[in-house]
Design a protein that fits this description.
Blueprint: H1 5-9, E1 14-19, H2 24-34, E2 37-40, H3 46-49, H4 60-64, H5 77-81, H6 90-101, E3 105-113, H7 127-145, E4 150-155, H8 171-176, H9 180-191, E5 196-201, H10 207-222, E6 228-231, E7 234-236, H11 239-242, H12 245-255, E8 260-269, H13 282-301, E9 306-311, H14 346-353
Parallel strand pairs: 1-2, 1-9, 2-3, 3-4, 4-5, 5-6, 6-8, 7-8, 8-9
């Protein structure tokens, strides 16, 4: 039996992990042994590269949905138009340096995201000011991290509501118009000519969202502005109730686009956020392993088209899901392949046994 995850799945696709600089050192040995690629969990996002002092709204989610008008007074417009004036790349540099030293490829995440800009501030910029900001930021990232083999260009650009049109209503669309996605993917193609460009989104197997992703990807493909569809694959154990036929149908449809596929942010929650609080049991944790096993079986079936499968984290100790969902479950979720001490979980053992 193969000894590590990347050895086990080398015949099928590369495997990766999202990594944070603050816990990289304690996870370094496990990452180098088990993964081919790394993604910065947060360190390459705009707010981490260009920190600022503007406050956040009391309800960030409400603001991001467009249900809250929040506009702080702008005090340093020059640094907003020219983001290279305020820079902190220490976290991203640490992760990128680790990857280069260990022969790991880097997935760039991300160049633009509506949830990683000064809240209520970019809404006050003119279209030309926002274009200047984006162009300078993309250029800066290319100079620092041009060796990223793939970039998530505009993260989560698709409308997540069941009603409405394909694109999310965000600051880019508000200021630059309905064709902004073509504009920003074109900017990425200009500054990252040797990198794959990825359209990355979630709820990728929900039929209405899947169809939006495919329509948008095909429109970008017609202009040679995308190479990869990124399927985030944040899921939970309830998928076992509903079966996997719908996932296979969706995969068949993604394959027909002719674009490469990446699984970009996979983890498996013990609970569904929408079902309310419940105690996490050993049976639920075992179900996590079952979900991983079933998903990876599907990934192997489509390995001719899947280039990379990335897990959103390494250890359960540091999963973002520790802070999400019902309060009674926070800190108790087991969504990843390694435990708090970086020992192999049942999920990890099953993936190795069934490679």
């Amino acid at each position: 039996m193969p000894k590590t995850l990347k050895e086990a799945y080398a015949p099928y696709f590369t495997v990766g992990a999202a990594v944070s600089a603050w816990w990289l050192d304690e996870a370094a040995e496990v990452i180098a042994a088990n993964f081919d690629t790394v993604t910065c969990e947060n360190e390459m996002k705009y707010l981490n590269i260009h920190p600022h002092g503007y406050p956040a709204p009391e309800d960030v989610n409400k603001f991001n949905r467009g249900d809250l008008d929040f506009r702080p007074e702008i005090t340093d417009r020059e640094s907003l138009v020219h983001p290279s004036l305020v820079v902190d790349t220490s976290g991203a540099d640490k992760i990128a340096g680790f990857a280069r030293e260990n022969g790991l490829k880097i997935r760039g995440h991300n160049l633009a995201w509506h949830a990683s800009y000064p809240w209520g501030v970019f809404e006050q910029l003119s279209p030309s000011e926002l274009r200047s900001n984006l162009d300078e930021h993309f250029k800066f990232m290319a100079e620092k991290y041009g060796d990223c083999y793939c970039w998530d260009v505009v993260n989560e650009a698709l409308n997540d509501r069941r009603e409405g049109d394909d694109l999310r209503h965000n600051v880019f669309r508000e200021k630059l118009g309905d064709d902004y996605l073509f504009e920003l993917h074109g900017m990425a193609r200009k500054y990252f000519p040797d990198s794959e460009l990825c359209l990355n989104d979630y709820s990728e197997f929900r039929p209405d969202k899947r169809d939006r992703i495919i329509r948008t990807a095909m429109a970008l493909k017609e202009r040679d502005l995308v190479d990869v569809i990124g399927l985030q694959c944040h899921t939970n154990i309830n998928v076992l109730k509903y079966g996997f036929d719908g996932i296979r149908r969706s995969m068949d449809m993604y394959v027909k686009t002719g674009l490469r596929l990446h699984i970009t942010e996979m983890d498996v929650s013990c609970v569904d956020w929408h079902e309310g609080p419940k105690e996490i049991t050993s049976e639920m944790i075992s179900d996590v392993a079952e979900v991983y096993e079933r998903y990876f079986e599907i990934f192997k079936e489509y390995s001719e088209y899947i280039e990379n499968v990335t897990l959103w984290g390494v250890s359960n100790k540091h999963s973002w899901l520790n802070h999400m969902g019902p309060h009674e479950c926070r800190g108790k979720n087991k969504p990843l392949l390694f435990d708090d001490n970086y020992g192999a979980t049942e999920s990890y053992r099953r993936l190795l046994a069934n490679a």
